[in-house]
Automatic annotation (TrEMBL):
Entry keywords, A to Z: FAD, Flavoprotein, Oxidoreductase
The protein's name in its UniProt record: Dehydrogenase
Claim: Secreted is one of the keywords in the record: no
InterPro entries xrefs: Acyl-CoA_Oxase/DH_mid-dom, Acyl-CoA_Oxase/DH_mid-dom_sf, AcylCo_DH-like_C, AcylCo_DH/oxidase_C, AcylCoA_DH/ox_N, AcylCoA_DH/ox_N_sf, AcylCoA_DH/oxidase_NM_dom_sf, Mycobact_Acyl-CoA_DH
Domain Acyl-CoA dehydrogenase/oxidase C-terminal: 230-379
Acyl-CoA oxidase/dehydrogenase middle domain location: 124-218
Source organism (scientific name): Trebonia kvetii
Domain annotation Acyl-CoA dehydrogenase/oxidase N-terminal: ranges: 8-120
Cofactor entry: FAD
């Protein structure tokens, strides 16, 4: 793909976005996805698809544009200045989608990917369980063969978007007699199947971004397995890698309520910008934000040149999460007593962003887990001994807690 054609594509994308999407910080961006705006998000995704900006690097036979990562990345760079109302597709297109593309059957690719791209079907990712988060291979949700399909039982938690998803990628134990990583399978589950119960969980901002999901004798038809039976750990690793790279290469948004730009203008409005302590913290925020942005850009440019960011996606994800935590502390200092009592819309936005920030130190793998990955796979430190890696799952305490 020539540099000129990428430049042309970028210009076309910018012109389309300018005409069709609200700019970030324009006050027009809408809030977190609620039930009511799902239809509007689906309509916008369909518009993006029709304009040739969905599935940019996915093959044409599965609904994509058949272009290269260079165009995909160019679009991402331009789109950062716009508040695209397509948040409900972030998981499907970033995680289950690429996993089906890499490991799915021809039938699955043809059935699910075009509808995902056109915004007709929304997906969620069902990995975490009450006793299996960082160590997700300890999961106890089970799937047993039933005729030509399977029957699914168990509980997932923290499932973002389950309340409005049509399908989910779920991992379940299919062989408890082998070590924990070897007896897992990934399935496609229809979230409207009989036996699926979704219970929203409320967070500090009052929103309900994620859910508990219960499976009670849920029938999974033939053709539901993604990849191979009992090889679901490989599929999970593909999905988690996509998740970290996606989160990690997003970079620091230029216009979030916790950005240097937003907080320094808020401080100026409140007459606080001369305070030397606060000025020092704002300066540090600027430097950290710029470093995260430049590192994200470096990884994107390397990806453009065909180099997989690999475990360095964890470095970007960790730095982004730590930036969010630091920015919320600066925000609390800028707001002062207004943190506790203010009915201004601007303060409410900053406060909501600050309350949501700790979530990014947990979602997609906690900061500690990212540090383990960086230690072992970037710095080459000795690996965690992983004492339970060769013990059959049904002989581990964690796996037998609920069953016996
Ligand atoms: C906003 C948000 C959205 C999410 N969306 C989804 C979703 O859509 N689908 C989904 O499946 N899950 C989702 N999750 C769940 C998320 O993946 C888990 O919360 C995360 O993996 C951590 O698991 P846990 O909460 O069980 O914590 P635990 O694994 O119990 O960890 C508890 C503490 O122990 C530390 N710890 C654990 N193991 C180690 C270790 N080996 N070394 C050092 N420290 C360790 C952790 O860092 C943490 O501080 C979401 C979470 C959040 C916050």
């Amino acid at each position: 793909m020539s540099e000129q054609s990428v430049t042309d594509f970028r210009n076309r994308a910018r012109a389309w976005l300018e005409a069709n999407a609200p700019r970030r910080g324009s006050g027009d961006e809408g809030s977190e996805a609620g039930r009511a705006d799902i239809a509007a998000q689906q309509a916008f995704q369909a518009k993006l698809y029709d304009a040739g900006f969905a599935g940019i690097s996915w093959p044409k036979e599965y609904g994509g544009q058949g272009l290269t990562d260079a165009e995909q990345i160019a679009f991402g760079q331009v789109a950062r200045d716009y508040a695209l109302p397509v948040g409900v597709f972030f998981i499907g297109l970033g995680m289950p989608g690429p996993t089906i593309l890499e490991l799915g059957t021809e039938e699955q690719k043809k059935r699910y990917l075009p509808k995902m791209l056109r915004g007709e079907e929304i997906w969620c990712q069902l990995f975490s369980e009450p006793a299996a988060g960082s160590d997700v291979a300890s999961l106890t949700t089970s799937a047993v063969p039933d005729g030509d399909g399977w029957v699914l039982n168990g509980q997932k938690v923290w499932t973002s978007g389950a309340q409005y998803s049509h399908y989910g990628a779920v991992i379940a134990r299919t062989d408890p007699t082998v070590p924990k990583h070897n007896g897992i399978t990934m399935f496609i589950v229809d979230m409207h199947s009989p036996g699926v119960t979704v219970r929203p969980l409320k967070v500090a901002t009052g929103a309900t971004p994620f859910n508990e999901v219960y499976f009670d004798q849920v029938r999974l038809p033939a053709g539901s397995v993604i990849g191979e039976v009992n090889d679901g750990w490989r599929a999970a690793v593909v999905m988690l890698r996509n998740e970290r790279v996606n989160i990690g290469t997003m970079g620091a948004p230029r216009t979030s309520p916790l950005s240097y730009h937003a907080l320094s203008s808020l401080a100026a409005k409140q007459g606080d910008s001369a305070d030397p302590g606060l000025r020092r913290k704002l300066a540090e925020l600027y430097v950290r934000e710029r470093s995260v942005r430049l590192f994200g850009q470096l990884l994107r440019e390397e990806a453009m040149a065909g180099r997989d960011p690999g475990p360095r996606g964890s470095v970007a994800k960790l730095a982004g999460a730590e930036l969010g935590t630091f920015a919320s502390l600066v925000a609390a200092e800028v707001l002062g007593p207004a943190v506790a009592a203010s009915d201004s819309e601007e303060v409410r936005e900053v406060l909501n962003a600050a309350l949501s920030a700790p979530g990014s130190s947990v979602a997609g793998g906690t900061n500690e887990i990212q540090r383990n990955i960086i230690g072992e796979r970037v710095l080459g430190l000795p690996k965690d001994p992983g004492v339970d890696r060769s013990t059959p799952f049904n002989q581990l305490r964690v796996g037998t807690l609920r069953k016996n």
